[in-house]
Amino acid sequence: MTDPIRLVAFQGQAGAYSDLACRAFFPGVATRPYPTFEDALAAVREGEADRAMIPVENSLAGRVADVHHLLPKSALHIVGEHFQRVNHQLLAPKGATLATIRTVHSHEQALGQCRGFLRAKGFEPIAEANTAVAAAKVAAAGDITQAAIASSLSADLYGLEIVQPDIEDAKHNTTRMLVFARTPEIPDAADGPCITTLVFRVRSVPAALYKALGGFATNGINLTKLESYMVGGNFVAAQFYADAEGHVDERAMRLALEELRFFSREVKVLGVYPANPFRQTGMADLGE
Fold it and tell me: Would you give the distance in Å from CA 269 to the centre of its chain?
């Protein structure tokens, strides 16, 4: 029996979108912010937290920087995934209106994702470390000429009012989050669709990547994500990150991984976990 989850770690500040995602995936469970992704993962590894929820990619901004380098080194296991819709709220102190606001504070990505709205209203954007910091700063100032772009959770935590909801230019802005634990929690293959996440480095021979991935094609395994990134600070060695639809106990996946290992220097499975229902119900909205 799995022990109860008491605390979930995330990177950022209370009220950030990662905090919102933790509360959505783990309703009623306490959350705790950490300064960096590495700190949040270390909190789980060292027993301070039971889980960590880390963003890995966004439908507009793409891959979250640095995360893929941290995953293989974390000594943790991926046990779940969550897709968090990002709905940006225009927050301001009580009494503020669209007519009183002059400046809007937020993270540079959030400002960029609301660029059309800000331009149409003539608001001056001011970049902050993250959206929750922006909300806290605006709340502390208490100035009706200042507003923040942040989550509805930030409005509740910092006593701000939602002057205008859902101001993002793209209405299907979504961030994929991964859930990490100290021990693996591999579901039964018969319980439903699963995702296997792995990292690997191919041998330095011609067509090595083509040959290494051939086993997925011949065994009918769909790769939903494949990315490369440099390791060791040089332009020669590349490590690959992949998400594959399937379970390691299924024959097709076993055969695909056998072929991958034959042509690779190193293969590490980071986790086998249930595919989030969003993959079936929400991907169409993202243009998939």
Answer: 19
Task: State how far the Cα of 7 lies from the Cα of 59, in Å rounded to an integer.
Answer: 28
Q: Are 74 and 101 contained in the same domain?
A: no
Closest listed residue to residue 7, CA positions, set 47, 38, 42, 35: 47
Q: What is the DSSP letter of 66?
A: T
Cα–Cα distance for residue pair 219/253, rounded to 1 Å? 7
Buried b (16+ CB within 10 A) or exposed e, 161-171: ebbbeebbeee
Q: Report how far apart, in Å, the C-alpha atoms of 120 and of each of 129, 149, 271 are.
A: 24, 15, 45
Separation of alpha carbons 258 and 260, rounded Å: 5
CA distance 12 to 19: 8
- Alpha carbons 286 and 170: distance in angstroms, whole number: 10
* Helix or strand holding residue 201 (H, E): strand 194-202
Q: How many structural domains is the chain composed of?
A: 3
> What residue numbers bound the domain in which 47 lies?
7-85+173-181
Is there a single domain that holds both residue 81 and residue 23? Answer: yes
How do residues 47-89 score in pLDDT, each as one tens digit? 999 999 999 998 887 888 778 778 888 999 999 999 999 999 9
Residue 261: which residues within 8 A CB-CB, separation 6 or more?
267
Nearest-angstrom CA–CA distance, 71 and 92: 37
Q: Which three-class secondary structure state does DSSP give residue 200?
A: strand
Q: Which residues contact 255 (CB under 8 A, 6 or more apart)?
A: 215, 219
* Block residue for tokens 């029996």: 1
Q: What would the pLDDT profile of 95-107 be if each residue is shown by its tens digit?
A: 999 999 999 999 9
Task: Indicate whether 121 and 202 sit together in one domain.
Answer: no
Residue 274, beta-bridge partner list: 194
Neighbouring residues of 29: CB distance < 8 A, sequence distance ≥ 6: 5, 6, 7, 8, 22, 23
